[in-house]
Amino acid sequence: MISTDFAPNETWSDAWVSIKLLFQPWRWKKGKEMSSIQKDLLSQFQITNNKLQITLFLSGRSALYNLLQSLKLPNNSEVLIQAFTCEAVVLPIIEANLKPIYVDIETQTFSMDSSQLVNKVTGNSKVLILQHTFGLTPKYRKEILIFAKEHNLIVIEDLAHGFNPQLFSPPNSYLLTPNSYSLLSFGRSKALSSVFGAALISSNRQLANKLTSHLAYPSYLFIFKCLLYKPLVMLIKSTYDIKIGLILHKLFKSINLLVLEISESEKGGKFDQLLNKRLPNGLTVLLENQLKKFAIVQQNRSKITNLYHRHFQKTINYKLQTMNSPLLRYPLLVENRNLILQKARRQNIFLGKWYDQVVAPKDLDLERVEYKLGSCPVAEGIGKKIINLPTNITLKKAEEIVNILNDVK
Predict the structure, then answer these.
(1) Which helix (H) or strand (E) element contains residue 26?
(2) Could you tell me how far CA 352 lies from the centroid of its own chain?
(3) How far is it, in rounded angstroms, from Cα 302 to Cα 296?
(4) Interatomic CA distance for residues 287 and 195, integer angstroms
(5) Residues 41-65: what's their mean pLDDT?
(6) What pLDDT, in 10s, does the model give residues 191-232?
(7) Domain 294-407, architecture per CATH
(8) Does 23-210 carry CATH code 3.40.30.10?
(9) Residue 370, by phi and psi: left (phi above 0), alpha (psi -120 to 50) or beta?
């Protein structure tokens, strides 16, 4: 089984760490890893600026919500975000009594179009969230950050999909100001997975220390389910091709053993306070294990991304610039998406559809997230054509996927 969405990072090594932790509940909420993980993350992402500090949360939506709350903005202040995003970005904005303003995207890096941004800024605009979609550096990042500085906008760079570590190196760090923040995610479908988890990078040390001081840890039951996740999904994935995994997946879901990535409350367009917590020590242990092999995984992602790039740049009129980028997913625009997905599924290859709606997931009511249909036509058009190819796979599997796309006309 190959899946872009379902546990793309997990290995038996991760499962074994989880199994051992299941028998050490005294390490679940607090432990020594809580202090070491922050330094390890700064080192892994080549963040050498000693003024920057990392604050850990249970989820990216919790990190964003608490940051927005801490800014103490007037109600209905505007937060500029791109269309072609997910509910985890929008719901915290609404929960904080702020107003999301959607900006259309460009087609090379699927990020905010600077020419569209100019038309959306008003005197009530206070925050700008710049999304690095699929881990691609936004085409107009420099222009947008300069524009934000000129208009006194607080900038939050959404690095949940991944990013180029050179962003924090001295030649580029001049773009970072005390009014800028960066958001990382360690959800199960991200480049690093602790099942749940997120980090906020800030140069405002006083603010960083306050952001989680009022937050509780998740319950022992919640942590237990998170620790169960990795061994269960490895059992499912390793037996899926012989049908046992499919049965196990249905069974585990039916008895509520697999903790949901998006809660039912969030699918209904409501911020879920159950995910507004601190990151517990048990999940930082899982994150540490993934950090140990992160460089190797990123090298492989770059190799697979380059394979896709070489093939599709020749066969499809496509302008994506991806060489040597360790993309979380390889985005591709196609005319016959359903046929491709069906053909791949028959071979137990499950391709992704980030994002098949301007604010994902597909079943989310757009009125609940204050999006007006037709307001961002480029993002809406891309949502109808996009598929995502997995990158954390072998060359052989990547070639199989290329052949599937070649066979579908």
Answers:
(1) none
(2) 13
(3) 10
(4) 9
(5) 85
(6) 999 999 999 998 887 787 789 989 999 999 999 999 999 999
(7) Alpha-Beta Complex (3.90)
(8) no
(9) left
